[in-house]
Amino acid sequence: MSELWAFLRIGFHHIVALDAADHIFFLLALAAIYRGRNWRSALWVITAFSVGHTISLALAIANLVPIRTAVIEFLIPVTIVLTGVENLVLRERVAAGRGARHRPVFAGIFGLVHGAGFAGYLKSLFVARVAVPLFAFNLGIEIGQFVLLTTAVALFWALDRGIVAVASATNRRATMDAFQLRLVGVSALVTIIATGWAWNRWPA
Q1: How confident is the model over 163-180, as pLDDT tens digits?
Q2: d(CA 147, CA 124)
Q3: How many CA atoms lie within 13 A of 115 on its CB side?
Q4: How many whole angstroms separate alpha carbon 35 and alpha carbon 110?
Q5: 150: which residues sit within 8 A by CB, 6+ positions away?
Q6: Domain coordinates of the chain in residue numbers?
């Protein structure tokens, strides 16, 4: 039990730590396009991402898939950029109530990349037995993701309400545009930052 708890805590702190900002920004970009009424679509996307990173994490730890750390570290911010750009392209479609059915597929593929990144960290802590550390570490990551996404949803809801309140106070019509304003702002910010990360991490 102590080993299970230890690796669960490591997984949790790895996803919520400041040095995991790239994973956090990806989750923000992934969640930014959804509102409360879209929770089913969001659930499918998050599930696909979790399945993707679980698969690649297990394969990498079992040494069934070679990992080149420099390439993975470059690809992680690329997934953020692509997600942010997709948000901007689809914003009007989603605002009109039309979903993006392909998004879970993309999330699953991007999850494979992030899982490889998690594996690189877990391998630095590697022990003789694989099953318990792998399960506990991945469970910790899932719990951390849940905490981050719950916080993000609350933050996005507050931003939407804040935009509406400001618009009402200034007699401007922004009720129907609050979602898109927030979506554009969040997506543009994470895309710009992640582009810088990708540039700096270009593999030699």
Answers
A1: 878 777 776 655 457 888
A2: 25
A3: 27
A4: 22
A5: none
A6: 2-200
